[in-house]
Amino acid sequence: MLKVQASIAALEYKPNRVAQRLRSTSKKTKLLGLIIPDIQNPFFVDVVRGVEDYAYQHNFAVMIGNFGQDEKKEKLYLDILQSENIDGLIVAPIHGKDKGIENLVKKNIPVVCIDRGLTEIDVDVVKVDNEQGAFNAIDHLLSIGHRKIAFISGNFKIPTYIERLAGYKRALSDYGVAYNAHLVFAKDTDYKSGFEIANKILDLKERPTAIFSGNNLLTLGALEAIHSRNIKIPEEISIIGFDDMPWSISLNPPLSAVRQPGFDMGRKAAEMLYERIQNPNSKKEKVILKTELILRKSTARIE
Amino acid sequence: MLKVQASIAALEYKPNRVAQRLRSTSKKTKLLGLIIPDIQNPFFVDVVRGVEDYAYQHNFAVMIGNFGQDEKKEKLYLDILQSENIDGLIVAPIHGKDKGIENLVKKNIPVVCIDRGLTEIDVDVVKVDNEQGAFNAIDHLLSIGHRKIAFISGNFKIPTYIERLAGYKRALSDYGVAYNAHLVFAKDTDYKSGFEIANKILDLKERPTAIFSGNNLLTLGALEAIHSRNIKIPEEISIIGFDDMPWSISLNPPLSAVRQPGFDMGRKAAEMLYERIQNPNSKKEKVILKTELILRKSTARIE
DNA sequence: ATTTGTAATGTAAACGTTTACATTTATCAA
DNA sequence: TTGATAAATGTAAACGTTTACATTACAAAT
Questions:
Q1: At what angle do helices A99-106 and A71-83 cross, to 10 degrees?
Q2: Are B216 and B241 in contact (CB under 8 A)?
């Protein structure tokens, strides 16, 4: 290790990663794929940061694709990343039976699912206990007297929202409150959707006394709808949602929320992917993290 | 175009992008690099979305690196993306004399700078008129009677903040108010930094009547500091910052801000990069977009 | 049936590495 | 000095495309 090494240093030779990747059967090329549903959602940004944090420490590059809940776009990114010969993929499947991802797993490409799992196939997953998280929120609302609680959900083909609905139902049933399907609304998972659905809810003849919203963006959208009508939170309506944000405390009013550890999820997923790459045949792992109910000022007792 | 094409379709043949990229001299391989300073900042998320929007339409994949204002990390991503043989790069340089980016430009790799330019070399740029944006904010504050206006800035090696400071100074001088260096603070560009600096400002013996904060995250951090002391906005202190957010209206109070068109900037940058890839020797372009002052309820007149 | 032009297909080299092996050079003990 | 062993270097094939060119197949025109 003399003349050659010296020249390598002298000429500042940088190996061409494309050629490396073409030639070698993975394990050295250091490229991770990350496919997320919505980069606008601060929760997924936390996930990205977690993944990146781990990747950076282990000298991986991360190639990110953002599919905006569009199945075609998800498929495109899957194809692209695959033909980029990535070493592994972290992905939040658009639904539980995602064939594209199933295929990758079957081809033995290391995959770890994040936020949502796959139902038809055994795969590594890191997610949160959505059912319990939703349960805790609704349980809190019920405990302070609310009985008419609307749920602003994301599309029910997304596994996360199915689980959150289950938690919503379980809490209701624990309190002997009948489930009313007219109180649950699902459309997209973005700001606009939260705004629109909240408006519908506020127009209901018998207005709910509380709103449970399915994510960050839905909550923020709902907040705008409520404020634009000058309805007071929590005096006139309570609201609590999934996902906490650093600035939740600065919202009007400081927002109560179900916190998910996004950064930790991302980091854990990257770590699991790393393990999977090293050890393709070890038993698949499911990691289910806990949520935390953070009570601030957006919910109040009613008689 | 018969048997071969038929087989291609029948076997669902997907060309290997790595091999394509290795062999061909760019222009067909469809990979863009995007290096941004802080993916947690919603402004840059808008930029990412804009880039992605254009890229998706033109069948490009986007490889994102997030360097968190860490020069070493920026360099790493530059090296990685370069050895990935990207067709072009969109980057927000960490400072105006960034040698790494200069080198790419000299090597004739298509580069467009976003949010910030380069001083030593001619390069495509899309940015915003930061000087005028800051001027407008401070001018507004001055017009409603404020004279002691603190500035929570990001690090002054970042060109954006140099420009914003210039706008701050110009407005002051237009009103015949002396510039006081003790009123401008610069550390990082994140939430924590905004929180810490705001606390320092609030501790000043002669407390400023208004705060101008340099970005999204700084504003949000400052907000938390102010709220944690139960100081009323805008009665006791006014605040206005760079960057608007969809949910600014739901903050306490609804926040006034200098809006930057992040999505448009991203889209425009991607478009310019596309042009540059097609036409490597055309004249470099500088696009300077306008900011918009959005007045809500976080600033009030003082006597 | 033959020619002609065009569309379709075939061929070989090249992109910059890795891999496996062969060869050369250096190192140390006897 | 010699041999044995290890370290360093050299060599050739392979990864899956693109590129440029050569060849073959297929019409339509003669």
A1: 20
A2: yes
Question: Residue A161 has what DSSP assignment?
Answer: H
| pLDDT tens by residue, B268-278 | 999 999 999 88
* Chain B: closest CA distance from residue A63 (Å): 5
Say yes or no for a CB contact (<8 Å) between B62 and A64. Answer: yes
Count the neighbouring beta carbons within 10 Å of the beta carbon of residue B294: 15
Place of tokens 């797993």: A105
Protein-contacted bases of chain C (C-beta within 7 A): 7-10, 14-19
pLDDT digits (tens, 9 = 90+) for A223-277: 999 999 999 999 999 999 999 999 999 999 999 999 999 999 999 999 999 999 8
Q: Which residues of B249-261 are buried (b: 16+ CB within 10 A; e: fewer)?
A: bbbbbbbbbbbbb
- State which residue has its Cα closest to the C1' atom of C14: B23
Q: Is A140 left (phi over 0), alpha (psi -120 to 50) or beta?
A: alpha
Whether A251 sits inside 8 A of B246 (CB atoms) is no
State the amino acid at position A56 in one-letter form. Y
Q: How would residue B61 be classed by pLDDT, with cut points 50, 70 and 90?
A: confident
* Least CB–CB distance from B56: residue in A17, A73, A254: A73
Say whether pLDDT at A24 is over 80.
no
What domains can you pick out in chain A, each with its CATH number?
3-128+261-291 (3.40.50.2300), 130-259 (3.40.50.2300)
The dihedrals phi and psi of A45, each to the nearest 5 degrees, come to -65, -40
Q: What is the DSSP string of A60-102?
A: -EEEEEE-TT-HHHHHHHHHHHHHTT-SEEEE--SSTT-HHHH
Element (H, E) at B138: helix B130-143
Torsion angles phi and psi, residue A259, rounded to 5: -85, 135
CB-nearest to A250 from B42, B80, B251 is: B251
Mean pLDDT lowest among A56-60, A118-122, B297-301: A56-60
Q: Is B79 part of the contact surface with chain A (CB cutoff 8 Å)?
A: yes
Strand D: positions under 7 A of a protein C-beta atom = 7-10, 14-19
Burial pattern B207-234, b for ≥16 Cβ within 10 A else e, equals ebbbbbbbbbbbbbbbbbbbbeeeeebb
Q: What is the mean pLDDT of residues B117-143?
A: 97
Q: Which pLDDT tens digit goes with each residue over B103-124?
A: 889 888 899 999 999 999 999 9
Q: Number of A:B CB contacts under 8 A?
A: 128
How close does chain B come to A87, measured CA to CA in Å?
Answer: 13
Q: String of b and e for B2-26 (b: at least 16 CB within 10 Å)?
A: eeeeeeeeeeeeeeebbbbbbeeeb
More confident residue, A24 or B102: B102
